Every structure is written in structure tokens, then in C-alpha cells.
Amino acid sequence: MVKACFAAVLCGAAFGGTVTYNYTGNTFNDCNGTNSLNGTCPANSFSDRVLASLTLSAPLGANLSSANQVTSPNLVAWMIGDALGDAPAFASTDANAASEITGTGVANFHNGISISTDSSGAISAWAMDASNAASGVGITSPTFIGGSGHPIADALVSSTGGVFWHLSNGFTGTWTQTLNGYQGGPAAAPVFLLSGSPVAAVSGSIGGAGAQEFYSFFWGGGPFSASASITGASSPTSYTFTAGPVGSFCGGGASQLLNSGDSFAGTIAISSLPAGQYCIGIETNSLADPGYSLTFNTPVSGVPEPGGLALIPGGLAIIFALRRARRA
User: Fold this and answer.
1) Rounded to whole angstroms, how far apart are CA atoms 178 and 27?
2) Domain span at residue 202?
3) Which of 1, 99, 145, 148 would you label with 272, given CA atoms 20 to 30 Å apart?
4) pLDDT of 187-217, one tens digit each?
């Protein structure tokens, strides 16, 4: 049954939206070449980090080697900056975006957006930076040795009162992907989330009698949490948010009713979910066509590697864990 479902969902839907790859860096731990705050570095610098995103009209391919995304026909948007806003962020919507992402500026990395991927399409190496005459921010993996002799993965250069300050850390951050406008399938044949970097969220629209939007994913085991929200819905419409093991029409697991009483939002959390293949989604009988989003608070994997299929057995333990969560 699992093999049949596995084959069905791989062929169940074509990608028709966009993919946003999101980078979350580690907090900075180096200010002006030392591991303590000094000079004009902001007081909250060691609570700050780099955030970046890259939106494409098609998923990244497998086994890319330093592929230049600035010139890719699939590039839709990009952004890079710091989480606390201590320095100006850079984005593709800027008037000078072309020169910011390819010019030298103060960061002087000359990388633009360079991406490598592994055999599953997950981002495995990267170099991305943007800058102008007043500030710059960049992320790099593998790391390199900076002028202070410390390894640098993320870097931020800006100024206060005309005096420049430099922040960095030597630990590479993580990438996740958000699938925008990626429609699911019926509970009997959920659509697999894309392979590659871990999936943090998926969105689409749902409407029509008996409409179902379900997705299948692989979970490696451990605490699991996912949230659902509906936008544009109105009372008395309601939606059912469900998570369960593949092979049971996504039943026998945890579920929540989403309605106006909870602002059409809810969360399913399981303290210890065994490794295996699962499906998750929402359903409704409304004729309206609102948007929805499923957020994996613990990002999940799309299509598992062939060896991962060996972890799928153990259905009874999975069902019992989900039922305990539903009762809670």
C-alpha cells in the first residue's frame, strides 16, 4: 500500500507556483575582529543574525555547482539583511537592486548569488551578498578566513556616525524552502512535498464541495509541530486540519476544526512522532475559494531517499501516537 501511494503521489501534481528558499544565519559572535562588543557595533549585535531569501519560479535542480542565480531566468525575487534591522536590508525591489547584488560596495565579496546543490536538490554550498557605499551583508559556505584570522560564514558591514563596524560569525546557517501556490491532492492520494532543502511551509487555495488539499512527507522522528491557517474565510464556513499516517486516507491521526471561533487557525503538536511517511492537509465543503497555508514549525523532508523507506513500517505505533495527540 505504501509503495502504491508513493508512486501515485510522485505523479500526482506538477509544480505550478514558486519556491522561496529561506536562509537563517547563526547569531553574530565577532565585532570588529574580536569576540566582544566594541567600537560602534550596536548593543544588540550578538542577538542579531543574517536573514536571506531567494524566490524562484522552479525548484533548484540537483547537483548544481556554483550556479549564478542572478542571471537565472527562474529568479523572481531576493532579499538579504539582518534580523533586527540594525543595518539597511537589500532586496530585488530596490531601485538600485542590480548594482547592489553585483557591485562591490563595502562588502567587496563579488559573489552575487551563487548556489550549489546536492543530488536531492538541497542547497549544499552558497555565496550571496549585496552592498552599497554605506553597508553590506553576505553569507558564504564554505567559510573563509577573514582579516581578523577568524572563519567567516555570515558578515555585516555598516556604519554609525560615519564610523564603520563589522559583525560576523563562523558558523553556517540553514536553508528551508516554502512552496507557494503548490496545490495538494485528495486524502487518498496526497501530493508529495518537493525534495531538496527541508520544507518549512506550503500554500495554496481550497474550495468546492468536498475539496481536499493533502500532502505527503517523510519525518525522521522526534517532536513534530505544524500549523494551518485559512485566509479570506468567513463564518459559518469550517475546515478540518488533519495529520495522519500514509495508507489510511490520512485518517487515524490528529485533527482540528478550523472556524471563526479560532480565527481559522490551529496547530497540531506531537511530542514524539516516530519516523515514517505521513500526510497532512485540510478539507472543506464550502464553495468559497480562500487561501491556506500549512507551516511546519519543525521543517520536514519531501520525497525520502530510497533508504528512508525502510523507516516507514511501525504503523501501529504511529497511529497510537497521533491518537494520543488528538485526545490531548
Assistant:
1) 22
2) 2-14+181-327
3) 1
4) 999 999 999 999 999 999 988 767 899 999 9
